[in-house]
Write a structure and sequence with these properties.
The structure is a single chain. With 494 residues, the protein is mainly beta. It has two domains: 181 residues, no CATH class; 308 residues, no CATH class. 9% of the residues lie in helices and 37% in strands. Strand 23 and strand 24 form a beta hairpin.
């Protein structure tokens, strides 16, 4: 290419057979769909597919080269330019993902010396290399474009000439495609709702209440019209609280579970406890509005000397854990909310915090909705646990959920197997006023109950497992995954 490059490799070009095809992926309403265009020419291409967008490849849609040589500057590499146009006239923004889909790649090319740069409107938005690329789809950039907007891109592919160790890349092959995916911003809540609404229903009666069950997707609708996952093992796994949302995996994200859809928002619960702490540092008159645990989980309480906003801010310090306002060291630098991206998709929601009495789940829900408190992070409701079982098989009150028909068909039973065998809910006990509800796996194996009267006044200060729970913004959508434990849902969070 350039004389200085030739000198660097002693006048020898590195020959790499590269075929990079630009493919437009467009949507069908409510789902992902795609259209593939493969050109044999280098002419400009403009395609209008669907109502939302078109992609124009200004310099031809094919990059094909056999003389890719090391360069000192990425601008001397191979490039293609394209733009995305949002032609929606309704005012809706357009979500899109740019992916590098690799059909085949020689092991020698899976190198940090083979690099790419993506510019959006002449500004670098993503740089990367091929050392961690896999055969299949590799998301390199995700964002959204406003209504009637246009975004211009330049994609560069190059060998880094600053390295002296890339001669083994000569005559190796890479075949792949750049893919532009566009969605019509179907929210995650809408996606789950559509799963339920489009499925065949089965009638289930529990405590004289009739419910409609979607047995295919393990979804049901409660007496409040909320859609919930139920059963022993529904496909409700999701990656959340990620350090890198552009590369969501078990190494970059936590695994959470989807409780269901409430008021157009998806409700999630962390799949693992963040530790065992007190519900409150007060032994009487404890409600969620003033509880020390609420202040630990939510922003705005940084002035608290113990536990204030530590989980929300990924901080460390002391947290309440035990009677007489006892404290313990707590560190949420790795288990707290990792970044602003996560915080921005958590909705400030009215939480149902009314007192419950360990009766049938429909009665629990009716009591919970009587009192509300607005916050970002909370705990699961008693009714969440109650509805998570299969009510066709489990016909007991919540105080008797230890029987196999209830606990073995309840995906939330994992809360009872934490380090303390005891997990807190957000609701306090209506027949006490002094304590909160808990799953006690040691004595009842999954029952929802308060402690015996002789220790009732110490319930808020007991150290119990904490499972943070959140509501997602109704604008959040999904980009990948099937909800299984091996392939959790992946969020579009831009």
């Amino acid at each position: 290419m350039k004389n200085k490059i030739n000198k660097f490799i002693h006048s020898k070009y590195l020959l790499i057979s590269l075929i990079v095809l630009l493919i437009l992926l467009v949507i069908a309403t409510g789902t992902y769909a795609w259209f593939t265009w493969r050109s044999t020419s280098n002419t400009s291409l403009t395609m209008n597919i669907g109502k939302l967008t078109d992609v124009t490849f200004n310099s031809g849609n094919d990059i094909s080269t056999s003389t890719l040589a090391p360069v000192y500057n990425y601008t001397d590499g191979e490039k293609t330019t394209f733009r995305i146009n949002n032609k929606d006239t309704t005012g809706a923004s357009l979500d899109y993902n740019i992916k590098l889909n690799i059909t085949s790649i020689a092991s020698e090319l899976k190198s940090s010396d083979l690099k790419y740069v993506l510019l959006k409107d002449n500004t670098i938005v993503k740089e990367g290399n091929f050392s961690t690329m896999v055969v299949g789809a590799n998301t390199i950039y995700s964002n959204s474009i406003s209504s009637s907007g246009t975004t211009n891109f330049i994609f560069y592919l190059y060998i880094d000439g600053n390295s002296e160790n890339n001669l083994n890349m000569m005559n190796k092959s890479l075949v792949g495609t750049i893919t532009v995916e566009a969605t019509d911003k179907e929210s995650f809540a809408t996606y789950i709702t559509n799963l339920y609404e489009s499925a065949t229903k089965t009638t289930v009666t529990n405590n004289n209440i009739t419910y409609q069950y979607d047995t295919k997707n393990s979804l049901m609708k409660d007496i409040g019209g909320n859609i919930r996952y139920y059963g022993a093992s529904p496909n409700n796994y999701i990656y959340f609280n990620c350090s890198d949302y552009s590369n969501q995996s078990s190494s970059t994200c936590e695994t959470w579970r989807i409780i269901g859809v409430f008021d157009g928002k998806v409700k999630l619960i962390r799949n693992e406890s963040i530790g065992a702490y007190s519900w409150d540092n007060k032994e009487i008159d404890s409600t969620w509005e003033t509880a020390s645990l609420m202040k630990l989980l939510n922003p705005g309480y940084e002035s608290e000397t113990v536990g204030g906003s530590l989980y929300y801010n990924s901080g460390s310090g002391n947290c309440y854990s035990g009677q007489s306002k006892a404290t313990t060291a707590c560190n949420f630098t790795s288990s707290g909310l990792k970044n602003d991206i996560t915080k921005n998709v958590i909705a400030k929601q009215d939480w149902n915090i009314g007192p419950t009495n360990q009766k049938y789940v429909n009665a629990e829900y009716e009591n919970e909705v009587k009192n509300k408190f607005k916050a970002y992070v909370g705990l699961p409701n008693v009714s969440d646990y109650g509805y998570a079982t299969n009510l066709k098989l489990c016909t007991s009150e919540l105080v008797n959920y230890s029987n196999s028909e209830c606990k073995d068909n309840n995906w939330m039973f994992y809360m009872a197997t934490g380090s303390k065998k005891l997990a807190y809910f957000i609701n306090y006990a209506s027949n006490s006023g002094l304590g909160v509800l808990a799953i006690n796996a040691l004595t009842e194996g999954g029952n929802v109950e308060i402690f015996d009267n002789d220790i009732n006044d110490t319930i808020p200060t007991t150290s119990s497992d904490i499972f943070p729970t959140v509501y997602l913004s109704n604008l959040v959508s999904i980009t990948d995954g099937t909800g299984t434990s091996s392939n959790p849902y992946q969020l579009q969070v831009n």
